[in-house]
Write a structure and sequence with these properties.
Elements (H helix, E strand, L loop, with lengths): L6 E6 L3 E9 L5 E10 L3 E2 L2 E2 L2 H19 L5 E6 L5 E10 L9 H12 L7 E13 L2 E4 L9 E12 H13 L3 E7 H9 L2 H6 L1 E6 L4 E7 L2 E8 L3 H12 L3 H11 L12 E4 L8 E4 H26 L12 E4 L8 H9 L3 E3 L20 H17 L11 H6 L5 H9 L6 H16 L1
Parallel strand pairs: 1-6, 6-11, 12-17, 17-18
Antiparallel strand pairs: 1-2, 2-3, 4-5, 7-10, 8-9, 8-10, 12-13, 13-14, 15-16
Helix pairs in contact: 1-3, 4-10, 6-7, 6-8, 8-9
């Protein structure tokens, strides 16, 4: 199967790295062709802090996925998270030279490009510019301005900003692992893509993705992203607390958390005890489940409260901004027992656990439908959308002659074709990726 028929999402997390290869089937659902997973070394709180280890972890996951699918991976869509991510609201406008012409994609691109030129703090770079709603000649609340007449086009934007160095480090890891960087997407946006339904986004919903190193938040209302945040705590701090509180090693703490952990201390009787083998001939340790869940509860409450502060910052308490669909929890940390009840108790909002199975084809592996893989599935969906966009004008293109193909034969023919096809306007992101690729090439 040549590249182009399938896409790849790569989730570089703090605890695991997942590569998923998939394609869209005829019903518009996603068919997963292969997955690979490796323990993530070298990532701390969502940010790469050891390039060599991260590269080898990426290679491991990618090789496993390639074996699994029997395909070769070329370009990937990667997620970015970490506490350096922040978001801001910004409005901008353009005055159109000819108001007799209808507004088209070029105008919207021009407006978006203008926002990318915003002056950021030193060392920061814009990752996403997400239009919220448009105004045409002062008429507000326009969702879709294409095809309208107007001289002045205005829009409110949700701008996501991250640290240049972190973005470059991710690009560097991908390149050194022998892959091409197709796109970088904010992880909470990818997870939202995978687990939320359109109705929830319309009604208003907060997606909380509890990962190993970070907890990501994305808030939607009226079908549009309104707020994003990354909180630098996740499941790993809970494990860390259990390790310290019970004086055991990390591996045991993680197992304890997963097998017996609960976010609600009232659930456990005082006489429920787990015995943990001691190190190298030492006596086994006995830990009461009540104490274990008290440790977990304290930390989870802290994480949920921080997320709730962000939800309040967005303005959930105003009638117009109310999130009717409540909260959706996803990510590995959402599998903690009684977490749903605790979140409902703290926030007073309806809560459900989000599984990324809504967009997956029926015969997908059960494992992939777990909240653990929400981000990876979302990144794969993003990759598929990008590839579909790129391959749109295929019919109109002239097919290359054999001579031309021979001339350019250093590359694989499918890549050559893809290169010939993309005569359309380059998106801002492509220009940005190219800049990044040039930078990385020069850096070597």
């Amino acid at each position: 199967m040549e590249q182009g028929n399938y896409s790849v999402g790569l989730d570089i997390g703090t605890t695991k790295i997942v590569a998923i290869i998939g394609k869209e089937n005829e019903y518009g659902k996603i068919e997963v062709l292969g997955t690979g997973k490796s323990k993530s070394l070298g990532v701390h709180r969502g940010v790469v802090n050891n390039i060599t280890q991260t590269i080898s972890s990426i290679q491991q996951a990618v090789e496993q996925a390639e074996l699994n699918a029997g395909l070769k991976i070329g370009s990937v869509v990667v997620g970015i998270a970490g506490q350096h991510i922040r978001s801001l609201q910004h409005s901008d406008y353009i005055t159109r030279s000819d108001s007799e012409e209808v507004i088209c994609d070029d105008d919207l691109d021009k407006l978006c490009n203008q926002v990318y030129k915003l002056v950021m703090l030193p060392g920061e770079e814009i990752i996403h510019v997400l239009p919220q709603e448009y105004k045409v000649d002062g008429q507000s609340e326009i969702k879709e301005p294409r095809g309208m007449y107007g001289g002045r086009l205005e829009a409110n934007f949700h701008v996501v900003v991250g640290q240049v160095s972190s973005i470059k480090n991710i690009g560097r890891c991908i390149k050194s692992a022998g892959l091409d960087l197709g796109n970088i997407t904010l992880e909470p946006l990818a997870s939202a893509e995978a687990v939320l339904s359109q109705e929830e986004k319309e009604a208003g919903v907060a997606l909380i993705d509890i990962g190993g190193g970070t907890t990501d938040l994305a808030i939607f209302k009226d079908g549009i992203i309104r707020h994003t945040a990354v909180i630098p705590f996740g499941g790993n701090v809970i494990t860390e607390d259990i390790k310290e509180g019970c004086s055991i090693i990390e591996k045991q703490a993680e197992l304890l958390k997963m097998k017996f952990g609960s976010a609600w201390p009232g659930e456990n009787k005082d006489n429920e005890i787990v015995s943990i083998p001691g190190l190298r001939g030492r006596e086994p340790k006995e830990i009461t489940l009540k104490n274990l869940s008290k440790i977990i509860h304290a930390r989870v409450v802290e994480i949920v409260e921080q997320v709730y502060v962000e939800i309040k910052n967005y303005g959930h308490e105003e009638q117009k901004k109310k999130l009717i669909a409540g909260i959706v929890l996803t990510g590995g940390g959402s599998q903690l027992k009684h977490l749903k009840q605790l979140v409902e108790y703290i926030t007073g909002m309806d809560t459900r656990i989000g599984y990324p199975n809504e967009h997956l084809a029926g015969d997908s592996d059960d494992e992939i439908a777990s909240p653990l893989y929400a981000t990876a599935v979302g990144l794969l969906m993003n990759a598929i959308q990008n590839d579909t966009k790129e391959n749109m004008p295929l019919e109109a293109e002239t097919v290359m002659t054999e001579q031309e193909e021979v001339l350019m034969g250093q590359e694989t023919t499918s890549n050559v074709n893809a290169g010939m096809v993309r005569t359309e306007r380059k998106s801002i992101f492509d220009k940005w990726s190219e800049k990044l690729k040039d930078f990385l090439d020069n850096a070597e």
